[in-house]
Amino acid sequence: MIAYTASEAKQNFAAMLDAAARGPVVIRRHDRDVAVVISPDDYRRLHRLNVEELLALCDRIGAEAEKNGMTDEILAEILASDD
Questions:
Q1: Parallel, antiparallel, or unpaired for β 32-37 and 25-29?
Q2: On the chain, which terminus has fewer CB atoms closer than 10 Å, C or N?
Q3: Which pLDDT score, from 0 to 100, does residue 27 have?
Q4: Phi, psi of 38 (to 5 degrees)
Q5: Strands 2-5, 25-29: pairing kind
Q6: Which pTM was predicted?
């Protein structure tokens, strides 16, 4: 993975963007990573994976709750009692 200091990234912004089109670019400040620049395609892919992972987690939790006796009616009662 390519890394730029914050100053290098500012001075070579176009080159850094070109590098990000080929792969992630780490921006470092004071010897620590502060940001990663990625291409729009990589961002969309990561976002889609996160959404898919969240939906899969919700499905697993729902199935476990249903297996343990949770119903829509019970859930509605629980939510109504929070008023």
A1: antiparallel
A2: C
A3: 98
A4: -130, 165
A5: parallel
A6: 0.66
